[in-house]
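[Q] Does anyone have a clean structure-token version of this?
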Amino acid sequence: MKDWIEHFRAAACGMPVSRVWRGYGSALFIELGTLTQRTRRDGSSGNPTGEIGLMIEWSWRIEDARSIACGSWTDEGLWQSSFDRLVGGEVIDLTTFGRLPEVMLHLSGDLHVASFMTAEGDAEWSLFDRRGPILITVGCRSGAITEEE
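[A] Here you go.
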């Protein structure tokens, strides 16, 4: 079994946060490294993707040095200013924590992004490695970090 977190940690460390965007509902996407433009099937522009990506479907928070700056349950009007603080930050580390693995992205400027599922089932996060010819996606399933098909 490959150590997927080490794979992503090694790839992400030193990369800048290039874009932070909101998906459906409270889904949070963080794009790292060089962005690539995407085109949707209908020909319209899609969200650009980074070399490495982190998606947290829900139950996430952004922490600064001494407090929670915002989270998935914060008033949505406060999200963008926190997202903007992340852009340009450099990845210091990428780790997991907890018995059922949650993910934490550590950034320069003492900023941190953490998942923390609060409902039944699995932690709802995924990491994407788009640097090669084949997309690599990992997440947490049944308490283990697994490659997704």
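[Q] Thanks! Anything notable?
[A] The chain has one domain: 4-148.
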